[in-house]
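User: quick one, fold this
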Amino acid sequence: MTSRVGVVGLGVMGSAMSGNLLAAGFTVVGFDVVPERRAAHVEAGGEVAESPSAVADTVDTIIMSLPSVAAAEAVVSGDGGLSSRARHDLVVLETSTLPLDTKLSVRDVLAPLGIRVLDCPLSGTGAQARVKDVIVYVSGDEEAATRVVPVLEGLARRHFYTGEFGNSSKLKYIANLLVTIHNLSTAEALLLARRAGLDEQLMLEVIGDGAGASRMFQVRGPQMVAGDYKDPTMRVEVFQKDIEIIRSFAHELHSPTPLFTLSAQFYEAAMAQGRAAQDVACLLAVLEQMTERDGD
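Assistant:
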């Protein structure tokens, strides 16, 4: 494997991964449909290509970090897509949170071209990704997974091989189910502390070091206390996509999700309050706004 890696999709997560890889000494060839993101990538020290297939021409490992099914389909099968190249030495790490059917379709379209696709979703927020504090779940061809270990070590704190293709996405859905709940529980606890007149920074320190803490409490609690949601590491409107994926996944398996179902309503409330572009940490403000009319 060479020291050149491609990143297709230079949004919050993609730019964070490319930044970590650049810091680790990799040459990172990037592509994004947004010109400003390509320019930022060059400014950070990366190279850019004019299409996903042009990225594939110069690397043997590509990371896909995309926001939607439509974006994945365009990168694979659109003009200049990866399916326009036959590359028997190319491994694609599909890191997006997408329906499993979409991931399987990406794998099956590219397999006849000799391109091996690994299902590699990330566990962690955009802020965590910037400081390499994320975990990668890796599933699919084991030889390909072994081959890309140096790349995984360059972009993440830890990685796990989880077996057959698709296992990683299933684990990611479960992880995001917990994130959905824990983010709301953090907002609920902080609002109660605020209305009890407690020092919020003290509350973060004391509760965060005890049995009541969660990773979301530690990561998003400080953001909630600061009340600044305008530089999102996960926008409410994007997380709505993840919620729908989890809901469909659980429904297909006839598995009850009472806490998740209740929690999802508050993300819908955030959308109704016009917070679609804000970070999901805004649930604290959502709860405050919902209860202000009660005289609190």
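User: anything notable?
Assistant: Strands lie at 4-8, 27-31, 47-48, 61-64, 91-94, 116-119, 122-123, 135-139, 158-163.
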